[in-house]
Amino acid sequence: MENLVLIGYMGSGKTTVGKTLAKLMQFSFVDTDEMIEKQQNKTIREIFAADGEQAFRDLETDLLKQLVAEKRKHLVLSTGGGMPLRAENQKLLSKLGLVVYLKAEPETIYHRVKNDTKRPLLQCENPFAAIKEMIDVRNPVYEEAAAQIVQVNACHQVEIAEQIKRQYLQYSNSSARQLNV
Ligand code: S3P
After folding, report:
1. Strand order in the sheet with 4-7
2. Which of 97, 127, 132, 178 gives a 20 to 30 Å CA spacing to 108?
3. Against a cut of 0.90, is the pTM above it?
4. Ligand 1, CB cutoff 6 Å, lining residues
5. 168 Cα–ligand 1 center, Å
6. pLDDT for 129-180, tens place per residue?
């Protein structure tokens, strides 16, 4: 496992935890939303508004293929919240590294994103209901896509990053032992 891949719903802390984790691991931090915005020279909002969600999902898949082809190592990859929704993306994510799901309750998410204007899927009349509904649908998908699940509700980002680092090292050591058998 050469990289760490963080998945989870919007506002679960993939970017903040990911940056802390990258420092702890001395890995580079990469955010898929940011990479797409740079490559397209447009914000996520603009891509959704001009080309629609499916076009954005295609860009996500293209980016994962690119990262797999580049065989990059020592990355902490923070992914957009919808990334694991495509089965194809789930396979690409597992090829990239150890996939960790940052699992949060709808109340935690709502508290964190209620004033956000950058996420097109939350610009609706009742964001709490939308969050709850989407998490119900996505939770089993995230769980299936992940090798590890970390509960993030009550924890500080540094504790979460340290926990992920421990799990990653345990996972790498046990994989190395298995290879030696
Ligand atoms: C999305 C999550 C966003 C971004 C886009 C769609 C989703 O990323 O990719 O707005 O479908 O959950 P974050 O999870 O980083 O907010």
Report:
1. 28-31, 75-78, 4-7, 98-103, 148-151
2. 97
3. yes
4. 10, 14, 33, 44, 80-82, 119-121
5. 25
6. 999 999 999 999 999 999 999 999 888 999 999 999 999 998 888 877 776 6
